[in-house]
């Protein structure tokens, strides 16, 4: 009920009226059943606009830092993340990664939509970077299709480091679902996981025509000034 109120009564109508998001390929989102929506990641705002333009509820796995802030700002951020269907996860690696996988599988096991950013973090420069294989493992274990999604101009509306968004019209392009059922039972084969992940990234690159770099976005970020996160 809380999610519905935020999306259709409180936050959603205001955001739609101000930013007038456009969408292509809405019909490619399955009308029912579990699926992963795999999106490029340009801005913090991606997790706001995508759920607004599709008819079904969906959840994103978000870093737990967004839910642990203190003071008024921390409370507001936590409230907003919950209102937009975000689920806190620990992205420190190791056992935390396994817990994140299990959290995603629980969402999919309930027949719901799960949003994932295969790059693992926001692009620092608008390019598309190498995907992390967690999305492939999740898709194969849950036996669900992966729907490629491209966010357009969200980095212009809210660039990394900016606190308040610019009023810019943003867009969402949704491609046809990718079926990986031919790899059933191979979710522990790291070569298969890399192949599936690369296929997802190719679909994203073709859909959005972003320049692709075969390196992790986090590696590029490590070379940039500390203010870029």
TrEMBL record:
CDD domains: LPLAT_AGPAT-like. InterPro entries: Plipid/glycerol_acylTrfase. It comes from the Bacteria. This is 1-acyl-sn-glycerol-3-phosphate acyltransferase. It comes from Microbacterium algeriense. GO terms for molecular function: acyltransferase activity. The lineage of its organism: Bacteria, Bacillati, Actinomycetota, Actinomycetes, Micrococcales. Keywords: Acyltransferase, Transferase. SUPFAM superfamilies: Glycerol-3-phosphate (1)-acyltransferase (SSF69593).
